[in-house]
Sequence to fold (382 residues):
Amino acid sequence: MRIIFLEAVQNFGGSKRSIIDISEQLKILGHDVLLVDFWGSNEEFNNAVKSRGLKMEVLEPRVSPFILSHQSRVIKIKNNLMYFFARLKYKRMFRKISNRYKPDYVCINTSKALDILSKNQGYEIDYYVRGWRLINSLRDRVLIRKYNPRFIAISEATRQAISIQRNLSLDNIRVLKVALREENFAQPNRIEVSRFNKEKPIKLLHAGTFVRNKGQHIAIEIARSLKDQGFNFKLKLAGLISAGSVSNRYYEELKKMVSDYNLEGNVEFVVNNHDLSQEFDASDVFVYPSQSEGLSRVCLEAMAKGKPVVANPAGGITDFLIDGFNGFLVLNNNVDDYVLAIRKYYFSPRLCAMHGDNGVAIVNSGYLNRTYREALLKIYNI
Fold:
């Protein structure tokens, strides 16, 4: 079977890591996989593709991705006009690739990618829904109606949302959950720790691209409340500043919050570090007040490291985060609820360790690459 994954890579976050993992598993199963990127501008993505021995082609090499959004309305209109003509070129380029490669499936995960496909080209279209639900703009609805792709959801929560949103039978929506590589998963060495106190801070970690819906500003509000209540803690905010101006402005806003709340001694930023293994290892609790998640690879990575997770009940997080078992699901963005959960771990390191071990068991039972292989066999009848 011949499969193309068509990507418009801007940042090398969890969704792009998952696409590479899926491509690798399909290759292991004996299938011919080609990744096609719009611009080839993200070196981390390019290097990861090469390191896995995967094939990749680029439509139009660029130093940076083509960003449509901008704080200036005039520039945003200009960008969209420029992209209208670029889109026509991309459509021609991809048609040449597909005519040469002759794929059985073309897999996309954005309407931008869907928009450059062509009907009646001999391939099926799979729409990998990486978020909690589909974007529901008029343009997106028109494209989906035109191409009628098969939907592949990242979680059961996403599957339910798509079914309701698109009025589709659940039988017509498949699920392919995020999975971690077995070689990166190991039972963490559990060391019994003493209660956190004035000499031993509880170490909190948040990781995610610096955009508002990932909730770093809520994490800072949590830190402010913890300090006001006299807890000894450290909070690290690790993440990528994405292409374009929006992410950088939000990052600057977060730094100002830390300064205004006098949290410089409690809060540390870790920016554009793609390997967070050491940050996970050094933390005690993963805190994630995200507003919308298809599944949340980063929460699974924290669990694989034996860390309990405290998070909003956002989308697919509820697939694997069981309240009171491997962490806590809190009222959406409720700072007091977050503080209460962290307080439980602060005064009971045994509970912290138990929830961490339970998370490891969940990852081991259903979120490693063997899960991908089993699901792919069903989805593609191979």
